[in-house]
Amino acid sequence: MHVHILGICGTFMGGIAAIAKTAGHEVSGCDANVYPPMSTQLAALGIDLTPGWDAAQLDGAARDADVFVIGNVVSRGNPLMEAILDSGRAYVSGPQWLYEQVLATRWVLAVAGTHGKTTTAAMLAWILEQAGLAPGFLIGGAPIDFPVSARLTDSEFFVIEADEYDTAFFDKRSKFVHYRPRTAILNNLEYDHADIFPDLAAIETQFHHLVRMVPGRGRIIVNGGEASLARVLARGCWSEVERFGLAEVPGTGPDWTIAVDGTIRLAGAPQGALDFTQAGRHNQGNALAALAAARHAGVPVAEGLAALARFRGVKRRLETRGVVRGITVYDDFAHHPTAIATTLEGLRRKVGAARILAVLEPRSNTMKLGAMKDALAGSLARADRVFCYSANLGWDVAGALAPLRDVARVFDDLPRLVDAIVAEARPGDHVLVMSNGSFGGIHEMLLERLAP
């Protein structure tokens, strides 16, 4: 089968391309932004890439395509998509293709939630890998312990990051309803994706649809401290349920809990202690969910703990990009006030009283729309200094950060932002850069400018 993938350079669609190639299909694709590292990875797989959306692809690279796999970056009015529709050629969404061609015959372990999906999915895949189960996986980031973010194996197990974003222009359900997991982690749930969901209740409905697809002998691993997820399960649940949570949060039991010192209990019985390098209570919660899901797949907790002791994390999740003159520069994907707050909490636990300089680009669609602006100042409270990049935002960033007073500064010019950070930073500081994009290469700029 020849598949031509529209939007192939996105993490998810690029993962599908790699999986399709491994499965023996002929793969080609196109995207508006064909550049490294994804273009390099796909070229290494022998996948032909066409820049742009020119309808002439139907007479060129995609002439012999049996099916077009459509990413959710594609909308009506896209020249190639319009030509596909006019020609009557076969097309399918990425999630549907993945289910029909790969997931339908496998034990799917899906990791859903507003936050922590990538890290938790990477942890779960690593635990299964270390247990000798050699899982297939598709992770929406770059796990450090694997050379790729997606792979297909002969294993019956497949770990997938289960995104609640919509599937395609012709299928407005969340991606994850296509995956039909046997094991599902519901890590957390709050309002996000303001560009497609009007309110939290709309997202809860999509999570309810996911729950409806888990078989009776399947298992749902759910954060017991989330009222939103309690509402989701109250709408109907037909599967086994195990709840997990932090030991100090009431109502998270009686199943899995983890204490600040890493001690894990299941139904009150000690299971061992988590000892790994990932910072923050949120990562302890992520690990607990991964351990519970792996146990459902047959991996003993002790074996999972041993694997997590060797887990190195995911790129762009509090990733150290360099240390210059005693100043450490980090990269983090934080895209939502809750993610900002938990990242800062984790770094604060790691560095103690040392100064943290938080550098933020509000770049996600939700942040660009200003839907979370009232929570922004509070999410940055653990930082000693805050530098925010406000270019191309249609709301008053300085006003939103006013409660931070002199701690926060706002810039709409990237070079001036870099100048201000360099002028402020001193040995022993920790510069935490947060964005879900490249942020104009600010990490490299800072490391170069901070160098003696």
Describe this structure in words.
This protein has 452 residues and is α/β, with parallel strands linked by helices. The chain folds into 3 domains: 2-93, 3-Layer(aba) Sandwich (Rossmann fold), CATH 3.40.50; 102-308, Mur-like, catalytic domain (UDP-N-acetylmuramoyl-L-alanine:D-glutamate ligase); 319-450, Protein-Tyrosine Phosphatase, Chain A, CATH 3.90.190.20. Helix content is 32%, strand content 23%. It contains 15 helices and 23 strands. It has helices at 11-22, 38-44, 79-87, 94-101, 117-130, 200-212, 227-234, 281-296, 301-308, 337-351, 365-368, 373-379, 397-400, 414-424, 442-450; strands at residues 2-6, 26-31, 48-51, 67-70, 91-93, 107-112, 136-138, 150-151, 157-161, 166-168, 171-174, 183-186, 219-223, 240-246, 256-258, 263-266, 269-273, 319-324, 327-332, 356-360, 385-389, 408-411, 430-434. The protein has a 10-stranded mixed β-sheet, with helices on both faces. It has a 6-stranded mixed β-sheet with strand order 18-19-23-20-21-22, sandwiched between helices. It has a 5-stranded parallel β-sheet with strand order 3-2-1-4-5. Helix 5 packs across helix 8 (281-296), helix 5 crosses helix 9 (301-308) and helix 10 runs parallel beside helix 12.
